[in-house]
Amino acid sequence: MNHAPLQLHNVTKTFTDGDKEIAVLNSISFQAMKGELVAILGPSGSGKSTFLSIAGLLQGFDRGDMFINGRNVSSLKEQEAADIRLHEMGYVFQASHLVPYLNVHEQLALMLQMANKKVDRARIDDLVEAVGLSHRKTHYAHQLSGGEKQRVAIARAFVNDPSLILADEPTASLDSERSWEIVQLLAKEVKERKKAAIMVTHDETVLPLCDRVYDMMDGHLSLQHRETSVHENK
């Protein structure tokens, strides 16, 4: 059976504030499909970061069910969750979090080594070329621009061949031109490599590059009905 990489069914996450119980996520149902980039918008405190953290198995929830590639992951031991994060998920953060003493090629090789996989130079070269950095693969983080660092971060997120990509404000430190380029690249790789991707963002200028856009407000997730996306026009 061909499962969606991520499914949430009536997921609720609450916090206690004194004698009050506050629902940060309120009965959320959602799925991320292969080959699509989904954006989630919302003001600070709306629950979008909590949503991404739960999707990435970085924190639990109180009620509901969540599935990764058809497997119910609602109650996992920490080592099981860590294994899924390493092998089935890729991350792109606001800051690239590159290792300072590794060059571009080595950044990707490290991820393969952490997953106990063979360092496949051809795969690394393919990804470095895909993000337009073949001429920079022996350069270190301090030798790269902000946009180039995020390109490395995207390549690194894909190197273990995960089914799900999670991007947390990946353009927050970039100007508008670089932001468009980075999300365009992310969307292209997601579609071509048939991955599912969720991007939390405040940057509405990049939304035409996304396949679906949701608003998060007061713990509720609602789909925006909007004009045809860039992808659908192609």
TrEMBL record:
ABC transporter domain location: 6-234
Gene Ontology MF annotations: ATP binding
Membrane topology: Peripheral membrane protein
Family that this chain belongs to: Belongs to the ABC transporter superfamily. HrtA family.
InterPro entries assigned to the protein according to its UniProt record, in alphabetical order: AAA+_ATPase (IPR003593), ABC_transporter-like_ATP-bd (IPR003439), ABC_transporter-like_CS (IPR017871), ABC_transpr_LolD-like (IPR015854), MacB-like_ATP-bd (IPR017911), P-loop_NTPase (IPR027417)
Location of the protein in the cell: Cell membrane
Coiled-coil spans in chain: none
Signal peptide residue numbers: none
Name this protein carries in UniProt: Putative hemin import ATP-binding protein HrtA
PROSITE patterns: ABC_TRANSPORTER_1, ABC_TRANSPORTER_2
Listed PANTHER family: HEMIN IMPORT ATP-BINDING PROTEIN HRTA-RELATED, IMPORT ATP-BINDING PROTEIN
CDD domains: ABC_MJ0796_LolCDE_FtsE (cd03255)
Quaternary structure note: The complex is composed of two ATP-binding proteins (HrtA), two transmembrane proteins (HrtB) and a solute-binding protein.
A Pfam family the protein falls into: ABC_tran
